[in-house]
Design a protein that fits this description.
The chain is α+β, with helices and mostly antiparallel strands. The chain has one domain: Thiol Ester Dehydrase, Chain A. It is built from 2 helices and 5 strands; from the N terminus they run E-H-E-E-E-E-H. The protein has a 5-stranded antiparallel sheet.
């Protein structure tokens, strides 16, 4: 089941190692879930990380991560994770992320990746093919 308003969705089952003594997913694991979903987003748009950036003289670095908790997931829950590129800046892409369980909102957040030269780690413009792939994927989803 796709999450409305999100270009990409995927399912992820909560594993035993991710549950804390309270019987719920330990809060830091949600950032891992975000990262897994963003990695799959890159694959879905045809630019699997890191190979999708090969030859561009670029790499992506996380500059900001924000997690808002609205509910708790537990062991063996199947989570639906939605990802969309909420903003394309000159050198950055902001991903909006939502996690649900059977339609119930559990987590929202954002992750900002900044494109930079891997040697100097100074921000530089997103490569044209990255910008075009994101825009085309998001536009395609909106048209459906």
């Amino acid at each position: 089941m796709a999450i409305q308003g999100y270009a990409f969705t995927m399912a992820l089952r909560v594993r035993w190692a991710e549950v804390d003594q309270q019987g719920i997913v330990f809060n830091a694991h949600y950032l891992t879930y975000f990262d897994v979903a963003i990695t799959e987003y890159w694959r879905a748009i045809g630019l699997p990380y890191p190979d999708g950036l090969a030859g561009t003289g670029s790499d992506l670095y996380v500059a900001k991560a924000l997690v808002n908790y609205h509910g708790s997931a537990g062991y063996d829950d199947v989570l639906e994770i939605g990802v969309r590129a909420a903003r394309l800046g000159n050198s950055s892409v902001t991903f909006a992320i939502e996690i649900r369980r059977e339609g119930q909102l559990l987590t929202t957040g954002e992750v900002v990746h900044v494109n930079a030269n891997p040697e100097t780690r100074r921000a530089q413009a997103l490569p044209a093919r990255v910008r075009q792939a994101i825009a085309a994927y998001e536009r395609n989803v909106e048209l459906k």
